[in-house]
Amino acid sequence: MHEWALAEGVISTAQRFAEDNGLTKVTEVVVMIGELQQVEHDVLEFAFEQLKTPLFKEAEFVLKSQPAKFKCRNCGNEWSFKAQGLSEDVSEAIHFVPEMAHVYIKCTECGSPDFEVSEGRGVWLATIKGEKNE
User: pTM to 2 decimals?
Assistant: First the structure.
């Protein structure tokens, strides 16, 4: 389950950030998840709860999705993943292996298969809130 490894990485990174910035308690961690990533939010939330260190005892882990967006290298058109109108099987294949997008997706304007994924990939820390002892 890669959600557990993601949770460990997020907590480790947030821990370093908190220590580097003198936080004695973390109250909120916002994690952005690209739409093209294959991440089960419920499993990731469970992993966060199980892996909390004392610094995160009262922390709320907030998961937010970033919609996938594409940009055609041929005509410059930009469009969203949902605008493509793909079947559930194809969508699942792309979620599992985002590079598969180039096999199934074409520009909604000119039909070119030459595009870049401009948003919607990856997992990253958006914000960390906490308290300092002064």
Answer: 0.79
Q: Please report the sign of the dihedral spanned by the C-alpha atoms of residue 14, residue 15, residue 18, residue 24.
A: positive
Query: In the block, which residue shows the tokens 């959600």?
Result: 3
Report d(CA 72, CA 59) in Å as an integer. Answer: 40
The range of the structural domain enclosing residue 59 comes to 2-67+120-131
Type of residue found at 38: Q
Residue 85 neighbours by CB under 8 Å, 6+ apart: none
Three-state SS across 13-43? HHHHHHHHCCCCEEEEEEEEEECCCCCCHHH
Count of structural domains within the chain: 2
Same domain, 108 and 125: no
pLDDT score for 89:
77
Pairing of strands 60-66, 25-34: parallel
